[in-house]
What does this fold into?
Amino acid sequence: RSLRLALVLAVAACGATAAGDDSGIRGRALAGPQCPVEVAGSPCPDLPWQGTVIATDLASDEEFLVATDADGRFELFLEPGAYEVSIAAGTSPPFAKPQAVTVEEGTFTEIVVSVDTGIR
It folds into this structure.
């Protein structure tokens, strides 16, 4: 019990707040297209993407990073506010068009990050 109290006090001393513990963004990153030509009757679904998702706070320009798991899923605990979400990528594919996301207090905003593989 005293260890838990010490941990809470240490986190509070670092400037962390309780807000953001119950709000944020969660979702899945999916990469596509996977096939150069899609043919009727032969689906070519998007696949989970493993990499880094970035949420940028539009008020402060602060960036928050999270790695996706093997299924492309991720979760970021964030303060309520407006964010722009994309992926960490170089100058060539894969890339993701940034999307605006609003985080409300006490909830997680569910999104899908569409990662463009560059396959045409």
